[in-house]
Amino acid sequence: MTDYNNLLQQLPGATPLVQKKDGWWMIAPRLDVLEMAQKMKEWGARFSTMTGRMISEEETAVIYHYCLENVAYNIKVNTQGNKLPSISVILPAADWIEREIQDLFKVEFTGHPHPERLLRPLQLEPGLFREIGGAKEKKEN
Amino acid sequence: MPYTIPIGPYHPALEEPYKINVTCQGENVQDVDIAIGFNFRAIELLAQRRNYLQDVTLVERVCGICSNVHTMTYCMAAESIAGIELPRRAAYIRVIIAELERLHSHLLWAGVASELIGYQTMFMEIFALRELVMDVLEAISGNRVNYAMNVIGGVNRDINNPDDILAAVRKIKATVEKVVIPIFTTDATVKARTAGVGILTREDALAYGTVGPTARASGLELDLRCDLPYAAYGEIGVNRVVQTSGDVFARVVVRALEILESIRLIEKSAAEFAKRPHPH
C-alpha cells in the first residue's frame, strides 16, 4: 500500500501533514503546486475544489482539496504577489475554480489556458470577496 | 463548413441562465463555449454575514432542485464542528428526504432527457411520477421545494405517516420497472439517440473531477453513501450502481437503476425508523 502521506511531505516546499476531523491538512505557504498537481494526477486522486481566503491586503491563501483513496487532503498555499501557477493544464477540473478565485479574490493564476472572467460582469473589478461592503464599481479614468 | 448556434442566456430549454455557443458540423457538436454567472448571488459572502442558524435558510436556496442536500451537508459540517451527535430517528428521516430528493432529481433528469430527444409522451409519463414525489415531500414538509427539513442537530419535522410514503414510492417503482426502464433500454429510437453518444471516458471523468451518476456511468466507483457513509446510510447499506460505457445510455441506465435503489433505501429506512420512537 502506497504511503501517500510520506510522498506528499517530500514535495518541494512541503510541511508535515496534520490529521483533523475533515481529513489531512498541510499548511505549506511555498509549496510547489505544479508538482503537487502532477503527483496527485499520477496517484489517481480526484481534484475536489479550491477555496480562497484573503489573508492580507495583498495576498490570498488558496486551499487545494483532493480526494485520494477516499481520504480528503487539504493543502493550503499562499499566493506571492497575489499570484500562483495555474494547475489547470495538469488537472482540467481546476479550470473554472481558478477563474472563480480570480474573480472573487483577484488572484492571478499564471499559465491558465484561458484566464477569462467566469462569474462576474466584465465591467466590474475582480476581487469582490476582498472588499468590505461588496462590489466596487470600476473607476472611470 | 461548421456553424455556430448561440443559445441563451435566457431560453426556454435552459433551467437557469447561461449562454452556450455550440459549434456544429452537421448534427455533430464539435465545440461548446459556455458563459455563466448571470445569476451570481455571492452566497458565501452572504453566509459570512449571518449566524449559523440563519445560514441554514440561506444555503437551502443555493439550488431549487437539490435544496435539501445543501442544508444537510451544511448541518453535518456544523454538527461536526460542535461535536453534536445526530439522533438516530433524525438520521433515518434525513435518508428518506435525501432519497426522495434524489428520486425527484433523477426523474426530472429523465423527463427532460426524454423531451430533448423528442419523446413527449415519455416526458409526461415521467413528470407524472415526479409529481407523486413532490406530493410526498409537500405532505411531509409543507413545501414542494425548499423543504426546510434540516436543522443543526436534527430535523425540523417528524414523519408521521411512513405508509403514505411507501405507497407512493411503490407506485413509482412499478411504473419505472414496467415502463421507463424497458423503453429506455430497448426502444430503438431511444437507443439510437443515447448509445455511443456523448462519451465521457473514465480517464476524462477523473481528470474533470466528475462525481455522482455521471462519474458512475463512466466507470468511476464513487458513491459517498458507500465510501464515507453519513446519516443512516452505514446501517442501511447502499448498492453502488456503476456502468462503464460512459455514454448518454450509461447515464440513463445509472439513473434508472438508482431510482430503484432509492426506493429500496426509503423502504428500508421507513422500516428501521418505525422502530425508533419519537424522543418526545
Question: Helix and strand layout, with pairings?
Answer:
The complex is a heterodimer of chains A (141) and B (280).
Chain A: H1 4-9, E1 18-20, E2 23-27, H2 33-42, E3 46-54, E4 60-68, E5 71-78, E6 83-85, H3 95-105, E7 108-110
Parallel strand pairs in A: 2-5, 6-7
Antiparallel strand pairs in A: 1-2, 3-4, 4-5
Chain B: E1 3-7, E2 19-25, E3 28-35, H1 43-48, H2 52-59, H3 67-82, H4 88-116, H5 120-141, E4 150-151, E5 154-155, H6 162-186, H7 188-194, H8 202-207, H9 212-216, H10 224-227, H11 233-236, H12 248-274
Antiparallel strand pairs in B: 1-2, 2-3, 4-5
Helix pairs in contact in B: 2-3, 4-5, 4-12, 5-6, 6-12
Structural account:
The complex is a heterodimer of chains A (141) and B (280). By secondary structure, chain A is an alpha/beta fold. Chain A has a single domain, classed as NADH:ubiquinone oxidoreductase Nqo5 subunit (Beta Polymerase, domain 2, 2-Layer Sandwich). Chain A is built from three helices and seven strands; from the N terminus they run H-E-E-H-E-E-E-E-H-E. Chain A has a five-stranded mixed beta sheet with strand order 1-2-5-4-3. Chain A has a two-stranded parallel sheet with strand order 6-7. Chain A is globular and about 50 Å long. In chain B, strand 2 and strand 3 form a beta hairpin. Chain B is globular and about 70 Å long. Chain B has two domains: 33 residues, no CATH class; 187 residues, Cytochrome-c3 Hydrogenase, chain B (Orthogonal Bundle). In chain B, helix 2 packs antiparallel against helix 3 and helix 6 packs antiparallel against helix 12. The mean pLDDT of chain B is 92. By secondary structure, chain B is mainly alpha-helical. In chain B, the strands form two sheets. Chain B has a three-stranded antiparallel beta sheet with strand order 1-2-3, with no helix packed on it. Chain B contains twelve helices and five strands. At the A-B interface, strand 3 of A face loops of B.
